[in-house]
Amino acid sequence: MGGISVWQLLILLVIVLVIFGTKRLRNAGSDLGGAIKGFREGMADDEDKANEQLSADNMDSTDSVQERTVVDPKDEK
Description:
The protein has 77 residues and is mainly alpha-helical. It has a domain at 29-58. Helix content is 84%, strand content 0%. The chain has helices at 6-20, 22-67, 73-76. The chain starts with 5 loop residues before the first helix and ends with a helix.
């Protein structure tokens, strides 16, 4: 009752093709694909930077742990 049938989708597709033409739709599709590709590359770059920062932070914390000395209160007296 409330669904869209296959025939209605085909009619809508034909109307869109007539109005916009195949060249314009092809350009829009390639632009959309390029935008998605750029978004994925940006997300991957951000993830790589975050992993590098996390690794650097872990190395810094490891270095600071190694530099600490333990002082025994009994030795101070």
